[in-house]
Amino acid sequence: MDLDTSERDGGKRIYSRLGPAQDRYQKVCFHWQNGRCNRYPCPFLHSELPPKRANYSSSYSSPDDPHNFQGGGSGFSRRNPNPNPNSTALSNHNGTNPAVSNHNGPPSRWGRSRGGGGGGGGGRVPTKNPEKMCGYWLKGKCTYGDSCRYLHASSIGETFSFLKLLEGHEQAVSGIALPSASDKLYSGGKDGTVRLWDCQTGQCAAIVTLGDEIGCMISEGPWLFVGLPNGIKAWNIQTNTDLSLSGPVGQVYAMVAINDMLFAGTQDGSILAWRFNVAGNCFEPAAFLAGHHRAVVSMVVGAQRLFSCSMDNTIRVWDLGTLQCVETLTDHTSVVMSVLCWDQFLLSCSLDKTIKVWVATESGKLEVTYTHIEEHGILSLCGMHDAQAKPVLLCSCNDNCVRIYDLPSFTERGKIFSKEEVRAIQIGPGGLFFTGDGSGELKVWKWLDTEQSSLHDVITA
After folding, report:
1. Which of 16, 313, 357, 457 shows the smallest number of beta carbons within 10 Å?
2. Which of the listed ranges 92-96, 313-317, 431-435 does the model predict with the highest average pLDDT?
3. In Å, how far from its chain's centre is CA 35?
4. What does the alpha-carbon distance between residue 134 and residue 132 come to, in Å, rounded to a whole number?
5. Is the C-alpha dihedral spanning 250, 251, 255, 259 positive or negative?
6. What pLDDT is recorded for position 182?
7. 3-state secondary structure the chain
């Protein structure tokens, strides 16, 4: 999805290496004095100034702040990816967890470890890990080796590990799916291909070339849905049924399925709905939801509501019974990139560099109960359980990092680094999760201390 430059107010920073300063011997590095200089080479002194002379000034101006892999075997196991419906973990599927309930809401515990939450747009900038990823190492071009001042690792964190890199996509990975009762992982990319990965070996088992850019991908039961320009491809992997759904105008960026309904958010701002006809083994047009005036980029279902977010900076709430818009949320100041549900809360993220936590009031209207601020624009949110069944939030940012937070405290537990921004995150079985970035790399990760079972054991259980 391409965004106008004016909209990328949470966009990437451009880091430039500084050349030698003409007056480097007259200035001491301010960050070195504070024990946190990470520039290499640094154009300022990493030592104290000599004693003053009559014609020498000791004043100086501080510069602007500049700027493995753990083997896990060649395969990964396949289990039911849906979390426990009775838990309070984040979910971005239909599930049984209520997304928003009509009550005053519990006392806010969001961000408590950092001094409390803050309603209606408050928040604090979280403490950041000072270590910076070596961009040259990511591209295999760093010549400094162990002497490099920047990090040579795919991640920072002790509670999860990197398992495998799945290479093949030539452009950004835009969708990842694991259909139930399948032994394959599916990924779609902007290169117009769908790749099938064997969950036992981690090898690419097949490639389907669609030709058109893939905007998103989801699975529901045995069905795999692929969002394309002006249409959707639907495959039933059990019966090998292949269907094409027409009606969308422009690229399909977001889809969500609940019961026998499929919703698709499109580039022109509309949301189309289809209902599955069992007798005819087909999807029939059911509704057209109009309201957004720019592209719909993410959707989630919870508490008999459909939540959609858009490049028009708003979130719309739709009643699933009437398919009418019952509320429009306008607290974000830039593109709203992703929404998900956690217990009675709704979480949303935006290029305005914030994650907002919403809760329903007595009247049923949603209001912000906490705002978490990031240094960069936020592209995607995904929630899951860690190995100890605690809810965690995966937050993909515009600086090519995925930050992992405990909830509800927003305590940072680690980072995942990628060559380019992570476009797709998917929960897997048995503590697995997957990330796909803008360079086409698909990576498999696992929470530590979780039971590892073979795919054969899962299928035959």
Report:
1. 16
2. 313-317
3. 33
4. 7
5. positive
6. 82
7. CCCCHHHCCCCCCCCCCCCCCCCHHHCECHHHHCCCCCCCCCCCECCCCCCCCCCCCCCCCCCCCCCCCCCCCCCCCCCCCCCCCCCCCEECCCCCCCCCCCCCCCCCCCCHHHCCCECCCCCCCCCCCCCCECHHHHCCCCCCHHHCCCECCCEECCCEEEEEEECCCCCCEEEEECCCCCCEEEEEECCCEEEEEECCCCCEEEEEECCCCCCEEEEECCEEEEEEEEEEEEEECCCCEEEEEEEEEEEEEEEEEECCEEEEEECCCCEEEEEEECCCCEEEEEEEECCCCCCEEEEEEECCEEEEEECCCCEEEEECCCCCEEEEECCCCCCEEEEEEECCEEEEEECCCEEEEEEECCCCCEEEEEEEECCCCEEEEEEEECCCCCEEEEEEECCCEEEEEECCCCCEEEEEECCCCEEEEEECCCCEEEEEECCCCEEEEEECCCCCCCHHHHHHC
> How far apart (Å, rounded) are the C-alpha atoms in residues 379 and 357?
16
Q: Of 122-136, 187-201, 312-326, give the lowest mean pLDDT range.
A: 122-136
- C-beta of residue 200 within 8 angstroms of C-beta of residue 209: no
d(CA 93, CA 17): 44
pLDDT of residue 45: 79
- Is residue 7 pLDDT above 90, yes or no? no
- Residues 6 or more apart from 64 whose CB is under 8 A from it? none
Q: How is residue 40 written in tokens? A: 């290499």
Q: In the structure encoding, which two tokens stand for residue 178, read together?
A: 């694991």
Tell me what the mean pLDDT of segment 288-316 comes to: 96
- Residue 141 burial (CB < 10 Å; 0-12/13-18/19+)? exposed
Report the DSSP pairing between strands 378-385 and 366-373. Answer: unpaired
pLDDT cut 70: percent of the chain above it: 73
Q: Which amino acid is at 23?
A: D
Find the distance separating the first CA and the last CA of the chain, reported in whole Å: 41
| Residue 184 near residue 433, CB atoms below 8 Å | no
Q: How confident is the model at residue 37 (pLDDT cuts 50, 70, 90)?
A: confident
Q: Residues of the chain with pLDDT > 90: what percent?
A: 54
- What tokens were used for 283? 């999807």
pLDDT value, residue 26: 58
Identify the residue with better confidence: 194 or 60: 194
CA–CA gap between residue 398 and residue 33 (Å, rounded) = 30
- Tell me the pLDDT tens digit for each residue of 406-441: 999 999 999 999 999 999 999 998 899 999 999 999
In sequence order, the β-bridge partners of residue 379 are: none
